[in-house]
Every structure is written in C-alpha cells, then in structure tokens.
Amino acid sequence: MEAREVALSAMLAALYAGLVVGLAPISFFVLQVRVADALLPLSVVLGWPAVLGFAVGCFIANFFGLPFPFCVADAVLGSLANLTACALGYKLGSGSADPKKAFLATLAIFSVVTAVVGTYLPFFLVACGIPADLPFLSSHVAPPPLGLLLVGWVSVGLGSLVSVIVLGYPLLMAVVKAGVRPSPGIR
Fold first, then answer.
1. How much is the mean pLDDT over the chain?
2. Structural domain span for residue 81
3. Exposed, middle or buried, 60 (CB in 10 Å: 0-12/13-18/19+)?
4. Does 40 fall in a domain?
5. Cis omega (within 30 of 0) on the bond before 131?
6. Of 84, 106, 111, 121, nearest to 174 (Cα)?
7. Which of 1, 97, 107, 120 could anchor a disulfide with 5, C-beta 3.0 to 4.6 Å?
8. Closest Cα to residue 83, out of 186, 152, 9?
9. Is residue 130 exposed (0-12), middle (13-18) or buried (19+ Cβ within 10 Å)?
10. Which pLDDT band, with edges at 50, 70 and 90, does 139 fall under?
C-alpha cells in the first residue's frame, strides 16, 4: 500500500471508530443503529483502503461495547464482518457509478453485517447478563438458540437497514455524483 492508501485507511478507521464510540448509546447491544455503518458502502468507490479502514475502525470501536473478554471477541468478529462485507461490496460494485450495481453492493454489505453480527451478538449479550430480548420479537417465539438467533437477525437487521441502506446508499450515491474517485494510486 502506498502512503496515500495508508493515510486514507487510517482516516476512515478513525472516523468509523469515533462515530461508534461517540454514538455509543445507539451503537451497541441488541437493538442498535450503528450510524458509522453508513460509511461502509463507500468501500465500493474507495476500494481496499476503505475495506481495511472500516475493519480496523470496527476493531478499535468494539472494545468499548461489551465487558472483557467479550469485547475482544466482538472486536475480532465485528471487524471480520466489516472486512468481509466491504470486500464483497467492493468486488460487486467495483467502483461503478451504476446505481443498480451500487445498490446490489450495498445490499451485500447489509446482508453480511446482519448475518454475522446478528448471529453472535445476542449470545454474547446473554453471557454478559444483558437482556437480548425485544418486546416485538420475544425469544419465546422459538426455543432458546433459535429464538436468540431470530432476535439477533431481526434487531441487527433493522439497525443495519437504517444505517447501511437508508443512510449509506444515499451517501454512496452522493459521493459518486460528486465525482469522488480514488486517486490513481488507490485500488
């Protein structure tokens, strides 16, 4: 990676982590709207520096959410979710200005984050003694493991819908419309 790419990754990591920690009350727990996730679709046009920056930013930010040792596991799994989601989004969108291709890439990012975080988060919360139940989707709907998975997928999915799709896709389209493209050295 060139110096510009490293600088862009560091800036995006700091921005992501700052938004998560600064908006901590809505960035953690079973029902979360992680506003920083609105940045994830930018990996479609900013490429690998964004993919790596958002993974590192998530790793740093997740140390502030759950008690030790769960924060370590959350940092590792959450950053792997961001890394996978953004890499897939970048691969699918590959710098395209086509709104359909960009939306498909954004949808892939949403799906990966929802599937990964929604799978592990409710179990971590229960292990920490934090309620992982929602009034509209009780874990009584299904036996414990399946009930917790349903709660995780629906709750994380709703939050990701707001942050990645409702906020992130228009942000991506605004950046594309503004003509923002990575510099020639950034892939």
1. 87
2. 3-177
3. middle
4. yes
5. no
6. 106
7. 1
8. 9
9. middle
10. very low
Task: Please determine, for residue 183, whether its predicted confidence score (pLDDT) is greater than 60.
Answer: no
Residue 143 confidence (pLDDT): 52
Question: 50 is written with which tokens?
Answer: 């964004």
By the 8 A CB rule, do 34 and 158 touch? no
187 belongs to a structural domain: no
| Cα angle for residues 31, 19, 53 (degrees, 5° grid) | 105
Show the tokens assigned to 117: 């975080």
Q: With CA atoms as reference, report the closest residue to 43 among 81, 116, 92.
A: 92
Give pLDDT tens digits for 62-107.
988 776 777 888 899 999 999 999 999 999 998 677 899 999 999 9
The sign of the dihedral angle between the CA atoms of 130, 136, 140, 144 is: negative
Quick check: is 138 in a domain?
Answer: yes
Residue type, position 121, single letter: L
CA 154 to chain centre: 15
Dist. CA 93–CA 54, nearest whole Å: 17
Number of domains in the chain: 1
Residue 95 burial (CB count, 10 A): 15
Across the range 160-182, mean pLDDT stands at: 92
The residue type of 12 is L
pLDDT 10s digits, 103-121: 999 999 999 999 999 988 8
Contacting residues for 35 by C-beta, under 8 A, at least 6 apart = 19, 23, 26, 27, 163, 167
